[in-house]
Amino acid sequence: MLEVGSMVPKLSLPDQNGKVHNIEAYKGQWIIIYFYPKDLTPGCTTEACNFQETLPDFNSIDAVIFGISKDSVNKHKKFADKYNLQFGLLSDENDTVCEQFGIWQKKSMYGKEYMGIVRTTFLINPEGKIAKVYPKVDVKKHHTEILNDLKELK
């Protein structure tokens, strides 16, 4: 997994509307990239809706939010439309970015092992370096933790 101080890998992924986002275009801003397992599931919905609820607070301090999962652009569109999400949900169907960030890992459920996204968030500073990593987040209060950290770091 990428660590604090690491430069963010170059990434270019489509969002729920098909618009491709290149991370380098956001240099000069704080960037929150949160990796989540699957659209339209309870934990992922809670996390996304909490980010949406506090989006004006993040916007007021010039921070950009992106959620990334392996779901398709079409599935992201359904998710964003259903919950009126106004930030980018990026599609990493080939696991490229997930692997670069080190969050595509072996997991287990009910004794069965499989590869999957480990819910993790990265706070990236305006220079493109990772300022903070949030592994194994609590989806109910994660957004406020990041917002508070951002206010302190700015």
List strands and helices in order, with pairings.
Layout: E1 12-14, E2 20-22, E3 30-35, H1 42-53, H2 55-60, E4 63-69, H3 73-83, E5 88-91, H4 96-101, E6 104-109, E7 112-117, E8 120-124, E9 130-135, H5 142-153
How does this model look, in words?
The chain has 5 helices and 9 strands. It is of the alpha/beta class and 154 residues long. It has one domain (12-153): Glutaredoxin, CATH 3.40.30. The protein has a 5-stranded mixed beta sheet. A two-stranded antiparallel sheet has the order 1-2. Strands 6-7 form a two-stranded antiparallel sheet. It is globular, with a radius of gyration of 14 Å. The chain starts with 11 loop residues before the first strand and ends with a helix. 32% of the residues are buried.
What is the name of the CATH architecture? 3-Layer(aba) Sandwich
**Helix-strand category:** alpha/beta
- Per the principal axes of the C-alpha atoms, what is the gross shape? globular
The major sheet is characterized as: 5 strands, mixed
What is the CATH third-level topology name? Glutaredoxin
Low-confidence stretches: none
What is the mean predicted local confidence, pLDDT? 92
Radius of gyration: 14 Å
Number of domains: 1
Written as H for each helix and E for each strand, in order along the chain, the element string is: EEEHHEHEHEEEEH
Class in CATH? Alpha Beta
Beta-strand share of residues: 25-35%
Please list the strands of the largest sheet in the order they lie side by side: 5-4-3-8-9
